[in-house]
Design goal:
The structure holds two protein chains of two kinds. Chain A has strands at about 20-30, 35-45, 50-55, 60-65, 70-80, 85-90, 100-105, 105-115, 120-140, 140-145, 155-160, 165-170, 180-185, 190-195, 200-205, 210-215, 225-230, 235-240, 255-260, 265-275, 285-290, 295-300, 305, 310-315, 325-330, 335-340, 345-350. Chain A is mostly beta strands. In chain A, strands 16-15-14-13-17-18-19-20 form an eight-stranded mixed beta sheet, with no helix packed on it. Chain A has a seven-stranded antiparallel beta sheet with strand order 6-7-8-9-10-11-12, with no helix packed on it. In chain A, strand 9 and strand 10 form a beta hairpin. Chain A is globular. Chain B is mainly α. Chain B contains one helix and no strands. Chain B has one helix spanning about 15-20. The radius of gyration of chain B is 11 Å and the shape is elongated. Chain B starts with 12 loop residues before the first helix and ends with a helix. Classes of the chains: A mainly beta, B mainly alpha. At the A-B interface, strand 14, strand 16, strand 19 and strand 20 of A face helix 1 of B.
């Protein structure tokens, strides 16, 4: 890639510890429609907050409560008739609320899914609609979304009330280019990052709505997605994924990358490339980063997990029962990995 | 990588950028 990259030793596939991922549970969704996403959330059941799993098929979102011995029971289902579900939008710090993005190729609606105060029936509330480009749930019961393009682009923060309805809305200054993704800055609740179509990273002050800086990153990889960021010693460290990265003869396939940016000067450089082990092929399809662990579904149908501190891939999960993996999420309620297949099977792994 | 290539670093970058950026 570039001379700025730290050289790393990539372990071979057969040296990875196959015991790193341990299957603890499996959920079978019998709805029959295509499975699109999974997430974990807290839900109050019989007076206790419980770590639940949310599964999304094209037209049904279901909430599963834990039973004994890693079994799960479906307790609520929300149905959609016109527009299919694209993704679950996990909102940290909320209980009894799930957000979903609906649309065909692009997001057309964001809805909050709740249940009635007596817990007997499901409810849904339309939060926003239009040509929505990107959405992310943020700490302190907030949700950020961008809609429109270029001159009419709107970036909005919505804060939820206890009952899940939208309590207040605030606009952020839009950059003059389309936003692709958002990412929080760990430990800085008033800072928000966005990646744009022009390969820039923008940073906002969420308290004032100011657009603080536009920082251009290396053009080696197009359409990079920002997953996580943290600030240390005056520098901003950002974990990106590279869906369009080509295989590099020396390093293999770069799936994630850690870059460092000086927000004062907007100068940046690559710190680490996270590549596939030798003998493994595939590009980034879909993935999730939590703390210092990154997981990705590859175009080969395999899931790969990296320890971002160690710098190399620590686990590979080949397709199970002949079915490729189609999505992967870290559970927000514990240290489990949730892996899903298109036919509705969800597997829970302890990492 | 070499930190010097990134230019002068400020520990208070967020506050400084907030005071410099248009409201």
């Amino acid at each position: 890639h570039s001379a700025e990259q730290t050289e790393i030793e990539v372990p071979a596939w057969d040296s990875l510890n196959p015991g790193t991922l341990q299957l603890v549970s499996k959920l079978k969704n019998p709805s029959g429609s295509c499975s699109v996403d999974v997430s974990a959330t807290w839900w109050e059941i019989a007076g206790f907050k419980q770590p639940c799993i949310v599964t999304a098929c094209e037209y049904v979102v279901s909430l599963w409560k834990p039973l004994d011995a890693w079994q799960w029971e479906k307790i609520y289902s929300w149905h959609f008739t016109e527009v299919p579900v694209l993704q679950i939008v996990a909102v940290p710090d909320v209980c009894n609320l799930v957000c979903v993005a609906l649309g065909n190729l692009e997001i057309r609606e964001i809805r909050a899914l709740l249940c009635s105060p007596d817990g007997k029936s499901e409810k849904q509330v339309l939060l926003s609609s239009g040509n929505i480009k990107a959405v992310l749930g943020l700490a302190k019961r907030r949700l950020v979304s961008s809609s429109g393009t270029l001159c009419d682009q709107q970036v909005e923060i919505m804060t939820f009330a206890e009952d899940g309805g939208s309590k207040e809305k605030q606009l952020l200054m839009p950059p003059e280019e389309t936003i692709l993704t958002f990412a929080e800055v760990q430990g800085m609740q008033e800072a928000l990052l966005g990646t744009t179509i022009m390969n820039n990273i923008v940073i906002w002050n969420l308290k004032t709505g100011q657009l603080l800086k536009k920082m251009h990153i290396d053009d080696s990889y197009q359409a990079s997605v920002c997953h996580k960021a943290y600030s240390e010693m005056g520098l901003l460290f950002v974990v990106l994924s590279h869906p369009c990265a080509k295989e590099n003869e020396l390093l293999g396939s770069p799936v994630f990358q850690l870059i460092v940016i000086n927000p004062k000067t907007a100068l940046s450089m690559g710190v680490m490339l996270y590549c596939l082990p030798h003998g493994q092929a595939g590009r980034f399809l879909e993935g999730d980063v939590k703390d210092h662990f990154a997981a990705a579904v590859l175009t080969s149908g395999t899931i790969a997990v990296w320890d971002l501190l160690l710098g190399h891939c620590t686990a590979l999960l080949p397709p199970v029962s002949g079915q490729n993996w189609s999505f992967v999420k870290w559970s927000g309620t514990d240290s489990h990995l949730l892996a899903g297949q298109k036919d509705g099977n969800i597997f829970v792994y302890r990492y | 990588c070499n930190k010097a290539d990134l230019g002068p670093i400020s520990l208070n970058w967020f506050e400084e950028l907030s005071s410099e950026a248009p409201p």
